[in-house]
Amino acid sequence: MRALRIHFTAEDFARIRFAPRPVPLQELHAALATAVTPRGGPLSAPWRGRVLRSLPTAAEPLADLVPAGRPPSFLDVLGDTLADGFERIRATSPGLVRAELERVHGAVPAPRWVRGLYAGEEAAWRTLRRAQQAAYETVLAPVWSVVQDLHREEFTGYALAAAEHGVAATLTGLAPGSRLHGGVWEWPGAAPAREVRLDGRGLVLLPTFHHPAGPLLQDAPGRPAVLTYPAGPGLPPTAERPAADAEALAAVLGRTRLEALRLLAEPHTTTSLARALRVSNATASSHAAALRSAGMATTTRTGRSVTHRRTALGTLVAGGPR
Question: Does residue 74 sit within a domain?
Answer without folding.
Answer: yes
